[in-house]
Every structure is written in structure tokens, then in C-alpha cells.
Amino acid sequence: MTEPDLAWTRWRPAAITAITPLTPRVKSFRLAVDFAHAFRAGQHVDVRLTAEDGYQAQRSYSIASAPNESGTIELVIEGLDGGEVSGFFLEVAEVGDAIELRGPVGGSFAWGPEEGGPLLLVGGGSGVVPLLAMLRHRAHAAPEIPCALIYSVRGRAGAIALAELEARARDEPGFMLRLLTTREGAGRRIDAEVVAAVLAGLGPPARSFVCGANPFVGAAASLLLAAGLPASSIRTERFGG
Ligand SMILES: Cc1cc2nc3c(=O)[nH]c(=O)nc-3n(C[C@H](O)[C@H](O)[C@H](O)COP(=O)(O)OP(=O)(O)OC[C@H]3O[C@@H](n4cnc5c(N)ncnc54)[C@H](O)[C@@H]3O)c2cc1C
Predict the structure, then answer these.
(1) pLDDT digit string (tens) for 22-38?
(2) CATH number of the structural domain spanning residue 136
(3) N or C: which end of the chain has fewer CB within 10 A?
């Protein structure tokens, strides 16, 4: 009998190789790991910080990059007011620091071309991060699969990877972006009309992935169910809040 591969359950050091500000509250972090080519888009890692007195804090962060051969993964972290771990990343972490990491983690909130399409992605705020990995993976591995992203943000300045998303919507046939700004312009939240319009353009999704803070995920998943999508086709990931 072969031993199960439990490498992902081990805490191991990962060096920060690059830090890039994306919005006033969000930064991208590149981490050197040995599984950059071998995870599923949508999975996350657990990160553990240890203070000098031994106090430890552990949080989950989604992988934003698609599987690739660079030897690094990208995490995209939003700084929350008073946030213990996100505050460390936004204000203290520097290139060359090593943090402890475990993963990749997550079974059902993951997508690959073998699941077919169309693919519906619904993200609120930093909840777009695992959806970015799926979009990047689709563009590389299965561009023929129709895909739509409904992305809800307070305003454009806080939207993560907006330039990339708008370029993809312009350049990639079969990818549709519906950006909703809740506190800018007319201010719009996700609602039944938005969902119906996107589904009309996309066709019935084989899989839908919804990610964001608890209230957003609850509201968005209810709208997808009300639009007639089978519960078994909808996957959700809650970031907290
Ligand atoms: C599977 C998974 C993947 C995740 N991926 C990402 C990711 O890619 N990027 C990212 O930025 N975060 C992600 N998160 C959230 C992350 O794990 C932390 O919860 C977040 O960074 C806050 O941790 P903290 O230590 O900074 O805040 P804490 O010190 O734990 O909390 C500070 C304050 O913020 C509130 N709070 C905690 N979480 C949230 C939230 N999500 N929204 C609003 N308020 C909150 C708390 O109630 C508290 O008042 C993910 C969570 C999960 C479960």
C-alpha cells in the first residue's frame, strides 16, 4: 500500500520574494513554495505567525495565481482595521522574510477544466482572490469555456486586479465582467436583475463559485438559487466578517 501524501499538512517556511501594492488597502505577496505547479485553482493556504513570546496566530489566504512553473504562488491580502495577521502583512512584512505556511488546502472550492462550463464566478471585495486563480487558469488551460465574473466592490479604486479583469473582458472571447460599485455612481448591489442578465449572456453554468464576506456570500448564493441554479452546482467560500 502506498503512503498517502501528507506533505500539505506540514508547516514549513516560505520566503516572501516580492510585495506589490494593488490598492490603498491591498497588497500582493509572492511566496516561494514547492507546490506552485500542483494545486487546484481556488484552493488556499494556511499561514502561521509566531511572536517572540511564542504567541501564534493562524489565518487562511486564497492562492491568487494559477498553477505554474515559477516556483512561487501569489497571495493577495486586504488590511482590515485592527487586523492581527492582515496588519502584519500590510505594515510589517518585507521581501526576504519567511513565514510559516501549510497547504494547499480546500477540496470543493476549486475548479479545473475537467468540470466543464459555463463557469459563473461571484466575488465581493477580497473574495475575488480565489476567483482570479480560476480566471487565470481558464485563460491558460481552457479559454473555450464560457465564463462570467460578477464582482462587487465599494468603488473602483478598491477593486483588486481591475486593470487585468477589464483587459481580459476586452481581449478574451467568452469572458464577461459585470462590475458592481456599491458606494460609487448610482451604487448597485448584486440583485436578481444583475444575476438574470449575466445568466442570459452566459448560459446555464455547470459550476458557480461565490466568495466574500459572510453577508455577501449569503445574499449572492440565495440569488443564484432563486434564479433556478441547482444547489449542487453552487460552491461557496466565506472569508469571515
Ligand atoms: C478559506 C479562506 C480564504 C481567505 N482568503 C483571503 C484572501 O485571499 N485575502 C484576504 O485578504 N483575506 C482572506 N481570508 C480572510 C483571512 O483569513 C482573515 O480572516 C483576514 O485577513 C482577517 O484576519 P486578521 O488577523 O487581519 O483580522 P482579525 O484580527 O482576526 O480581525 C480584525 C477585525 O476584522 C473582522 N474581520 C475578520 N475577518 C473579516 C473579513 N473577512 N471581513 C470583514 N471583517 C473581518 C474581525 O471580526 C475583527 O473585528 C480568507 C479566509 C478564509 C476562511
Answers:
(1) 999 999 999 999 999 99
(2) 3.40.50.80
(3) N
